Amino acid sequence: MTRNKRPQSVWCRRRGGPCFSRVSTAVQHCFDKAMECERLANDASRPDVRDFYRKLRDSWLMAANNHQIMGRVSDYLASQRLG
Q1: Is residue 46 part of a domain?
Q2: Per the domain annotation, does 27 fall within a domain?
Q3: Nearest one of 40, 41, 33, 38 to 67, comparing CA atoms
Q4: Is residue 67 part of a domain?
Q5: Within a 10 A sphere around the Cβ of 31, how many other Cβ atoms?
Q6: Which of 20, 41, 53, 67 has the fewest CB neighbours in a 10 Å radius?
C-alpha cells in the first residue's frame, strides 16, 4: 500500500484541532485502522463487541503514536550525527 507524500491532516489533542504535517505510511496505516475500528464499534449492536473494537482502536492509536515518537527520535539522532 503506497500513499502519496502530501501532508495529511492529523488530529492534535494539544491544539484541539487538525494539524498539518507529513505523516509516514506506517502512521497513516495505523490511523486508517483506528478509523476502521471506530466505524465497526459504532456499527456493533452488542456492547462487548463495541468495547472490543474501541480497545483495538486505542491500540492502533498507540501504535501510531509510537511510530511518530520513533520518527522524531530518528530525526534527532540523524541531526546529531550531521552536526
Answers
A1: yes
A2: yes
A3: 33
A4: yes
A5: 19
A6: 20
Within 8 A by CB and 6+ apart from 34, the residues are 57, 58, 60, 61, 64
Q: List the domain range (segments joined by +) for residue 65.
A: 8-78
Residue of 61, 58, 67 whose CA lies nearest to 23 = 67
Residue 3 lies inside a defined structural domain of this protein: no
3-state class of 11 per DSSP? strand
Closest CA to 55 of 44, 68, 71: 44
What's the average pLDDT block by block, 10 residues per block, for the chain (83 residues)?
42 51 84 97 98 98 94 87 72
CA 8 to chain centre: 11
Residues 6 or more apart in contact with residue 10 via CB below 8 angstroms: 18, 19, 20, 21, 23, 31
Gap between the Cα atoms of 8 and 18, Å rounded: 9
